[in-house]
Amino acid sequence: MLHLRAVLIALSLAVIAMMGLLSPASADSRAMRLPVHTVKLEAETAGGPKFFSLEVADEAEEQRRGLMFRTDMPDDRGMLFDLGETRQTGFWMENTPMPLDLVFIGDDGRVKAILRGEPFSRATITPAVPVRFVLEFKEGTSARNGIEPGVRLRHPVIDAVAGPN
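Given the sequence above, the corresponding structure tokens read:
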């Protein structure tokens, strides 16, 4: 009886592993990886300019998936979402294993709020003000680089709305 039980457990684990549920790489294989934009984002911080590579999510499906299933991202990279209009918005972290900084940006190119994204949470992350863009970084990237409310972010996608100011 003990042998049969061990065989059933082993078979169950094999089926689960084949479904990809035990493999840490399984989540990452479902992750969307967008091309890195040719122009870096510049953050005009009190400590001087900081530069970041960006993936730009500008299609509805790209925005829906965002950083879901991503288990890693370089420290100098983020994902920029252009909402298409200035509006109240909310994000959630379902299927997102990395803790994130969500940087909410107004149509003037300035940071309006930075909120933390808790891995796998379905809680809505919503700033107190309407925004045009959202930038996702690995958690702590904003603080380490002096990005805070009021900082101007420059990138062709943002500047097309915000202008040169």
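The beta strands are 41-45, 48-57, 77-87, 100-105, 111-117, 131-138, 152-154. Try to locate this feature in the token string yourself.
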